[in-house]
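During the reporting period the student researcher (J.K.) took over the structure-prediction task from the postdoctoral fellow and processed the backlog of single-chain submissions. One of the processed entries is reproduced below for the supervisory committee.
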Amino acid sequence: MERIIRTAESLARRYGVLYYEIRITEVGATQVVMENGQLEELSLNTEVGIGVRAFNGAWGFSSANDMGRAEKAIETAMKIAKLSKGNSRIYLGDLVVDRAELEAKKPVADVDIGDKLALVKEASSLLDGNKIVSRSVRYGDGVKRQIYFNSLGSEIETVVPRVSFVLSVTAKESGSMQTYWKSFGGTAGWELVEGIDLPHGTEFVKEKAFSLLHAQAPPSGTFDVVMDPELTGVFIHEALGHACEADSVKNGDSILAGKLGERIAVEGLNVVDDPTLPGKFGSYIYDDEGIRAKRVDLIKDGVLVNYLTDRETSALLDLEPNGHGRAQSYAYQPLVRMGNTYVEPGDWSFDEMLEEVKNGLYMIGDKGGQVDTAGGTFTFGAKEGYIIEKGEIKAHVKDVALSGKILEVLGNIRAIGDDTRIEFPGYCGKGQVVPVDDGGPHVLTRALVGGTR
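J.K. obtained the following structure tokens:
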């Protein structure tokens, strides 16, 4: 390490580099995957690599998966920075020396691979049954150890464990097929898996798939819509969160550009991104630019009060950096990314919310979709839905989608539930893939509803 630091200091002087930062990362990971009772993957991997960024009005970046090439990677990044022409600025900040760890109660490294395989086999067996034509179980764990240092003299060592577990089934009857799945995950150890009620979880997934076989097609048109906590979370993440990422704002790709301090939603709506939440899948201690993670209020009482920033966008937009520069691995440059994004609770009960709806839909879960942050529009599929008539839940509907204009839907919110949940882990793609979590309470709004087929 001392040799790498001395090399970086020497090369920075030689190439006239204003600022540099180096990440040395070790990730130990396990993957166990079963498809239809057959073992598809059983792997234990350890990867070590170095990522180097140098800044001289523009960034130069290089990486290597062999520490024997560390000095070459440092020199390459600095050469690129010197040759690149740019007049950008970055936030430098203070020198930081720290070691921090998100501790697991039962470290996954202490659990035998045979126990992990046994868990997946048990889940796969429980998912089997009549009308089930496909079933999948995916277990993954990893521990990321990273040493970060920069030209200011900062040295930060972090350890972050993660575990994920996904159950999925496809049921078929009379030519119709429906798929349902459930995900578990967090910054934790084996204790997360031990806390799963496997018989209940597998039965829940199967029953949902069976029920959807007999569900009807959804109506089309503009309706009052009650979003469940999972759909609230994906809406806030995709439709609002990405528009709050300051690189999108900087590049003119966000409908929220220039709107800081403006009311963009109903009074009473509070939206937060908080990577410091204990145990959540999108949690971390420091971002990949050596900035301490912190809670960020995005919307406060309906007013846009902040963007998510990294070193560069905070300098360009004259904002405080808030620790949201994240990279998929040492081989990627950090980008502005979310951590755990959610809607804070209001004061409505679910039953009170239903009573407000004379003709509408209750939409549940996340089935993926698209968002145009520049144009301000979105379309998301829900796992399932129910017709609401005069405050009562009626017919089950399938293949249902929610769409509309982001600011209109935020402005149409009439009720915010008191039941916030942040337990919907996943991976967010933005050229790179990083772990995130999202959630919220039930929310009543108005939007366009239609089918997904």
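The committee noted the following: Residues 198-213 form the longest helix (16 residues).
J.K. will present the remaining backlog at the next meeting.
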